Amino acid sequence: MIFGYPALLLHLLTILMLGVLGGIVITAIIVRFVMPGFEGYSLTMRSNLLWLIASFPIIAGGAAVILSVMPELFPASHLWLAGIIHWHHAYLFSPASWHGVFLSLCLLSIFVAFVFGAWRTRALSRRYTLLAALSERSEGGLAELDADAPMAFVAGLLSPQAFITRGLASSISEEERHIIGLHEQAHIVRRDPLRKSLFAMLVGLYPSPVRRFLQAELELVQEQRADQWVLRRYPNPSAIAQSLLNVEKLAARFRQQQPYRASCHFAAHAVQRRIMHLLGPADHRSLSVVLVGVVVVVAALCSAASVDLVHHFLETLFLH
């Protein structure tokens, strides 16, 4: 049995984990409702919403912890907080109780995820080192790889580098190569590989359909932002859109000829939506910041209430 402030700290960690899980469930439900109309919002709004959705479980867990300690810091708050969250025996923690088992499983899961992430990062780093060693520096900031697959992409987290295969470089015009080089340079300047990895970590606990949707939308947002970056330096949207189509045709033809799938990151990720974003009218639905703030606050309170509900349900079930 653990007493005093160490017990309080362990309880707060348990509340944090429960709040995160509650935030995941609530956000997953909200995402299912907003998925059909998500593409109707502006690029900036979609980007902000994606990062808010990805980080909301942490926000929900933090809100649950803050609400739990408020009666300790502000005794008067207990009058209205009792209906939202109330934690019994906060200064008494039993490792053999469901609190201890649940917290141990959560911490073990975090440790396993950290080890797997570190292993994956090391593997990606080795792959990037190998790509850099096998490539040849060429004009336009693109390193050429001796491969038939028509591909152009950026690799590396802290020091990203742009690559293009000879299969693609030999099949495009100088204008298209210039556009592709600008596009990949945009990903480097914006550190998109690092952002994408961080986003993948944040959405890792979401259900698979929600996680795939969020990651696909982030990739599309990154591609569209890169297209805009290119457009400011090469103000010819028709040429950029035509390059997208041409490179996608090359990749599609290669996929049909080869038994494995190959794609070009420059032209991938919903090409039709990227072209419409380049050539179509900038007519997007607006979304009130106040409304978003209200939804976040209500969802955080609901997450805290779910923590209290689960806590008291299990307390009654196990009778400890």
Across the major sheet, the strand order is 3-4-6-5
Number of helices: 11
From the spread of the alpha carbons, the general shape counts as elongated
The helix-strand sequence is EHHHEHEEEEHHHHHHH
As for the number of domains, it is 2
What is the structural class?
A: mainly alpha
Straight-line N-to-C gap = 13 Å
Describe this structure as you would to a colleague.
The chain is mainly alpha-helical and 320 residues long. It folds into two domains: 1-121 and 288-320, no CATH class; 135-283, no CATH class. Helices cover 69% and strands 6% of the residues. The protein contains eleven helices and six strands. It has helices at residues 4-34, 43-73, 78-81, 98-134, 166-169, 174-189, 192-202, 208-233, 237-257, 271-279, 289-318, and strands at residues 2-3, 92-93, 136-137, 143-145, 152-155, 161-165. The strands form two sheets. Strands 3-4-6-5 form a four-stranded mixed sheet, with helices on both faces. A hairpin with a 5-residue loop joins strand 5 and strand 6. Helix 1 crosses helix 4, helix 1 (4-34) crosses helix 11 and helix 2 (43-73) crosses helix 8 (208-233). The protein is elongated. The mean pLDDT is 81.
